[in-house]
Amino acid sequence: MNISYSINTIVKYYLNYKGSKKIIHYKEVITKSKNKTKTTWNIIHKEKGNITNENNIKSLRINNHTVHNQISIAHELNDYFVNIAGSISNKRIDKKKRRCTSITKFI
After folding, report:
1. Which of 7, 21, 28, 43 is the most exposed place for a label (fewest CB within 10 A)?
2. Looking at per-residue confidence, does 89 or 22 come out higher?
3. 31: domain range?
4. Which of 50, 31, 49 is nearest to 40 (CA)?
């Protein structure tokens, strides 16, 4: 029995096999997904190579000091967002007090 396959034929069969396994895998992923549209688009972007995971902040400048440590950056951002609501609220209260004071001056 003399079986000879060219490299091209072997590669073609391998790619076909690999492609069919990928299709089966993606069908399972989409079927199990709660948000099929989003999952489908994520698969499309992944296959096209459009997925970027560069959401990490590399550094943050705070009061003329640059922070590079990811944990420190997370803490600084957390502190900012925790305190900003109170700061905005205090500014609004101050404005209302000033408005009320100016109105009572006219009365």
Report:
1. 7
2. 22
3. 1-55
4. 31
